[in-house]
C-alpha cells in the first residue's frame, strides 16, 4: 500500500459508497479537517433547522411548542434515534446534560445497584473528566477508586478482589485511538460481579457500537464529535432495560418524573431510560442534533467502519517513515477512527501540528507529546488523507515546523 | 384606578421610559403574551447571533473557536454579564447545566459546608423540581428533608431545632407570584446557623435581585423565562465569594478544574464560581443567551420594577370583579411580576385559559386551579394589559369558555 499514488486515492473515492455524504457538510475551502474526533463538521442542513426552532417554534409559537413541536419529548425522541447507532433499544437511550453529568449520574446509579461493593475501577489514562467525575462520585458515595490499564490482565487483577461495584472504560482511547474489546471486557467484569459503564465519546459515529449484544449496563456518549451536533452539544445516556425498574440516579429533576404534569410533591422515577433525565434542556441545541441525526439515519455503519479503517490505515502507512512513533494499533480490531503519533520532543510535536494547520491540515496536539488525527468517514476522502500525509511528511522532513514554535490555541 | 380607560393606558405607554424595548422583540401579531414567566419572547437580534455561531464560529472556524471565539470562557463571560442583574460580583456567577442540576450541585455543596447538621429545609409548595432535587440530594447525602411554609414563623420553628444545614427557598413563588423577603429570611437562617440557597427562576429579569447585599450563600436561576434566552436555555449558579475556597460540588468535571489543559489525573477545583462548572455546554444555546444579555445590559432595573408593579396592579384591578380569587399579594413589596387567579372549579379555570388563548391572550394554567399571567415589562404595554383584562372579564361573564373545555397543551 506504500506505493499508493494520489490517482489511486482518487479512484478509491470514485468507488466509495459513502462519497455522497461529503456534499452534505459545510467544509471550509482549502482545509483537510482531521479534528472531527474533537468537534465534528457542520451539516449543511443544520442552520435552517436551528433557525426554524428559533424563529418559528420559539419566536412565533412560543410555549405552544412544548407540545405542538414535540419539545417535551425531545430527549426521548433524539435518544430513540441514537439507539440504532449504539445497538440499543429506543427506550434505552435519552439525550440531555453533559457527558460529565451523565457519567456522574450513571456511576452513582451503578454504585447503588451494587451496594455490597464499594470500589470503582477506572482507566489510569482516561480522559480527565472521566477521572475527575469518578474521583468526585467515589468521594461522595464513600467508595474507593482504583485506576488500572484497560487491558484484560490488569482489569482481571483489579476485579479479583471481589469488591468492585462498577468499571468505567472508554470504548476508544482519546489519545491513542485504541479500540477496546467491549464484549470481552464487559463479560470479564460481569464474571466478577461488577457492572460496566462505557464512555462512547470516541466511538459513536466512528464505528458500529453493540451495547445490547455486548450486555453493557450503562453507557454515555458525546454528540459533538463524530455525530456532528455542534459545539458543546448534549450528551446521551444508555441504560440497559434490565436496570430500568431499579436504577436510581441522584439528580431527581421533574423531567425524570413518571407523571411530571401532576405536579406532585413526591418524586416517582419515570419508566425506561427517562428516569435518567433531570431538568429542561436547550431545544436550540437539540435542533442541531436532530439535523445531524437525519443524516446519520441514512448511514450504513458497516460501510462507515470499512472506510474508517481504510483511511486510518492509509494515513499510518503514508506517514510511516516520518520517524514519529505510531501509537494507534495497526490491527483493525483494536483501532478506532484516529491515528496518533508521538514525537519524543513534546513542544516540537505541537509545533508540527501548528505548521500543518498553516498548510490547511487541521489535527490536534495532546499533552505531553501526542499528535492526533481523526478521520470522519462521512466527509473525508482518500485524497484528503493522501494530501494530509504528504503535508506531514514534508513538514517533518523540511523542519519547516521550527518556524511555528508558538503556542497552539486551546482545543477541546 | 378602576376607572382607567384604554386611552389612559395609551398615555402611560407614551410616557414609559422602557417602551422602546418592545420593538426589539419578535412578538406574534394579534397576541398579548402573558407567559413570559414560563418562556420569554424572542429578541430580534437572537437569530443572527445564533446563525453566526453555527455558520461562522462552528462551520467555518471549527475547533479554532474554542479560543478565538471565546468558547472556553463562555460560562464565565455570560456569568459575569448576569451578575449585575442579581447583585453579584462577576466572578460569583457561572452559566451552564440545568436548574435541576445546579440546585443539586449547590445543595450538596451547602450540606458539605455545614457537616455537623443534616437537615434540608424546603418549601412545601415549591416548584416540583426543587422538591424532587431536594429529596434526591438529601437521600444521597443521608440528610433529612423538612418542608415548611416559606414565611418567617414557620421557618423560624423549623430552624429552632438547630440541625438545619441549608434552606432552599424560591424568591418568587411560581404559582402565586408572591415575592419573599430575601434579606429577612436569609438573616433568619444565618442566625440559626443554616446556609441559604435561593431559586431565582421567577425573579431574575422581573425585578432587581440583591444577592450580595442580602448575604445570600448560593443561588440558582433560569435564563429562559424573563431573561429571554430561549427554550431550555442554560441555568446559572451564584456562589458567594466567601465560599469559593471551601465549597465542593459533586460533579467534578474538567470545566471546573483549576488547570484543565494540564490534563492532570487529579481533580483540583478552580478559583471562584468556576468550580461549579462540570462539562461542555452548548455554544449554540449560549449564543442566544449572549444576544438577550446584550439587551439586558441596557435595562434600568428600578424602572423595570416600577413598570412591572404598575402592570400587575393594573391587571389585578381590572379583573377584580370576575369572581376569580386573587392569589397574588396586592402589597407591592410582596409581589413578583405575575398575577395568579384561582377558580374554584379547576377544569373551568383551565377552559378559561384556553378560551383566552383563542382570543389571542396567552396565559397558562397550573394544576389544580391556578390561572397564571406573567408580565414581562420589556415587551408588554399598558394597553396590552388592558386588552387582556378586558378579554378575561368578557370570557368569564359570557361563559364563552364552556365551549373550550378540551385539554390544554402541556406547558412548562
Automatic annotation (TrEMBL), chains A, B:
InterPro entries (alphabetical): DegT/StrS_aminotransferase, Kynureninase, PyrdxlP-dep_Trfase, PyrdxlP-dep_Trfase_major, PyrdxlP-dep_Trfase_small
Reactions catalysed, as given in the entry: 3-hydroxy-L-kynurenine + H2O = 3-hydroxyanthranilate + L-alanine + H(+); L-kynurenine + H2O = anthranilate + L-alanine + H(+)
Cofactor or coenzyme needed: pyridoxal 5'-phosphate
One GO cellular component term: cytoplasm
Keyword rRNA-binding included in the entry's annotation: no
Classification via PANTHER family: KYNURENINASE
UniProt function note: Catalyzes the cleavage of L-kynurenine (L-Kyn) and L-3-hydroxykynurenine (L-3OHKyn) into anthranilic acid (AA) and 3-hydroxyanthranilic acid (3-OHAA), respectively.
The protein's name in its UniProt record: Kynureninase
Organism from which the protein derives: Lipingzhangella halophila
Amino acid at each position: 500500500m506504500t506505493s499508493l499514488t494520489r490517482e489511486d486515492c482518487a479512484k478509491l473515492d470514485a468507488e466509495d459508497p459513502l462519497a455522497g455524504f461529503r456534499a452534505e457538510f459545510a467544509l471550509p475551502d482549502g482545509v483537510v479537517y482531521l479534528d472531527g474526533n474533537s468537534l465534528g463538521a457542520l451539516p449543511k442542513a443544520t442552520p435552517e433547522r436551528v433557525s426554524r426552532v428559533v424563529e418559528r417554534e420559539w419566536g412565533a409559537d412560543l410555549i405552544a411548542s412544548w407540545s405542538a413541536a414535540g419539545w417535551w419529548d425531545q430527549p426521548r425522541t433524539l435518544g430513540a434515534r441514537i439507539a440504532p447507532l449504539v445497538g440499543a433499544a429506543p427506550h434505552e437511550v435519552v439525550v440531555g446534560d453533559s457527558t460529565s453529568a451523565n457519567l456522574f449520574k450513571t456511576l452513582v446509579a451503578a454504585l447503588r445497584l451494587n451496594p455490597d461493593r464499594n470500589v470503582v475501577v477506572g482507566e489510569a489514562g482516561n480522559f480527565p473528566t472521566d477521572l475527575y467525575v469518578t474521583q468526585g462520585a467515589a468521594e461522595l458515595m464513600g467508595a474507593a477508586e482504583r485506576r488500572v490499564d484497560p487491558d484484560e490482565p490488569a482489569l482481571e487483577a483489579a476485579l479479583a478482589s471481589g469488591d468492585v461495584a462498577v468499571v468505567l472504560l472508554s470504548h476508544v482511547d482519546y489519545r491513542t485511538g485504541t479500540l477496546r474489546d467491549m464484549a470481552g471486557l464487559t463479560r470479564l467484569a460481569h464474571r466478577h460481579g461488577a457492572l460496566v459503564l462505557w464512555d462512547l465519546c470516541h466511538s459513536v459515529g466512528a464505528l458500529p457500537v453493540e451495547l445490547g449484544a455486548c450486555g453493557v449496563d450503562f453507557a454515555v456518549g458525546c454528540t459533538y464529535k463524530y455525530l456532528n451536533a455542534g459545539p458543546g452539544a448534549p450528551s446521551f445516556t444508555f441504560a440497559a432495560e434490565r436496570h430500568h425498574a431499579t436504577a436510581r440516579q441522584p439528580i431527581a429533576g421533574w423531567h425524570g418524573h413518571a407523571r411530571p404534569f401532576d405536579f406532585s410533591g413526591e418524586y416517582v422515577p419515570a419508566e425506561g431510560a427517562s428516569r435518567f433525565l433531570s431538568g429542561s434542556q436547550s431545544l436550540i441545541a437539540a435542533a442541531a442534533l436532530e439535523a445531524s441525526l437525519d443524516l446519520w439515519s441514512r448511514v450504513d455503519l458497516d460501510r462507515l467502519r470499512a472506510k474508517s479503517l481504510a483511511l486510518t490505515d492509509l494515513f499510518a502507512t503514508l506517514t510511516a517513515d516520518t520517524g514519529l512513533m505510531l501509537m494507534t494499533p495497526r490491527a483493525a480490531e483494536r483501532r478506532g477512527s484516529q491515528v496518533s503519533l508521538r514525537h519524543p520532543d513534546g513542544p516540537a510535536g505541537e509545533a508540527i501540528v501548528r505548521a500543518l494547520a498553516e498548510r490547511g491540515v487541521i489535527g490536534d496536539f495532546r499533552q505531553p507529546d501526542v499528535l492526533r488525527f481523526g478521520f470522519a468517514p462521512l466527509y473525508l476522502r482518500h485524497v484528503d488523507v493522501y494530501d494530509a500525509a504528504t503535508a506531514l511528511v514534508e513538514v517533518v522532513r523540511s523542519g519547516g515546523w521550527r518556524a511555528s514554535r508558538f503556542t497552539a490555541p486551546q482545543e477541546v
